[in-house]
Specification:
Layout: E1 2-10, H1 14-22, H2 27-30, E2 34-39, E3 47-51, E4 59-61, E5 64-69, E6 73-79, E7 87-96, E8 105-114, H3 122-151, E9 197-198
Helix pairs in contact: 1-3
InterPro entries: Polyketide_cyclase/dehydratase (IPR019587), START-like_dom_sf (IPR023393)
Organism: Streptomyces alkaliphilus
Protein name: SRPBCC domain-containing protein
Length: about 200
């Protein structure tokens, strides 16, 4: 068994993070890793996901949803070809860290891999961490923008610096610094959690 865990703090409440995460029809607008998604995000439902790893070809998966607890947890599990070969359990965990005046959500995003192929697919698993982090950053920006639009106020920019002061939408207070801001063909892609069908 091997696990990959990533984490990010998002300047938006869980409500907005959850809405972005479950709005599958818009994944192509912001998600660099899961470009297409569909299905029922409810326990026992089946998802259809098209993964675009940083390295490697796009791959399709059909994982089963294990947990879909509103604004708290989304978890799915799938397999490569057959159970016990290369199984993955993928999760998004949301924790509310903020207040109504200063919203924040901790996102823990990861996957646990099991099966006889895990020891020989170490490179695939290591590349998954990079792709997960890219997804986290894009999700944070999308959720923060959604919150800003919804409540009509600016939120701190996602980045390495400490959160700056909040001003009206479209403005930046003087004390707030300007923001700056896997897999080879034929290999199964980590993070897919379902039965893959290699895309041409």
């Amino acid at each position: 068994m091997r696990s990959v865990t990533t984490e990010i703090e998002i300047p938006a409440p869980p409500e907005d993070v959850w809405e972005v995460l479950l709005d599958f029809s818009r994944y192509g607008e912001w998600n660099p890793f899961i470009r297409e998604a569909g299905g029922r995000a409810e326990r026992g439902g089946t998802l259809t996901l098209r993964m675009h790893p940083t390295k490697g070809r796009p791959v399709n998966f059909r994982p089963k949803v294990l947990v879909a607890e509103v604004e708290t947890e989304l978890r799915w599990r799938g397999k490569l070809l057959m159970p016990g070969l290369f199984d993955g359990e993928h999760h998004f965990l949301l924790t509310d860290l903020g207040t109504p005046e200063d919203p924040a959500t901790r996102l823990v995003h990861g996957e646990t891999f099991r099966g006889v192929l895990v020891p020989v697919l170490g490179m695939v698993i290591r590349r998954a961490e990079h792709d997960f982090r890219l997804l986290n950053e894009a999700l944070a920006e999308r959720a923060a923008a959604r919150y800003t639009e919804r409540v009509g106020r600016a939120v701190p920019t996602v980045g390495d610096g400490a959160p700056g002061p909040v001003g009206p939408v479209g403005t930046r207070l003087p004390s707030e610094p300007a923001s700056e801001e896997a897999d080879t063909p034929g290999e199964p892609t980590a993070g897919g959690d379902g039965e893959p069908r290699r895309a041409d």
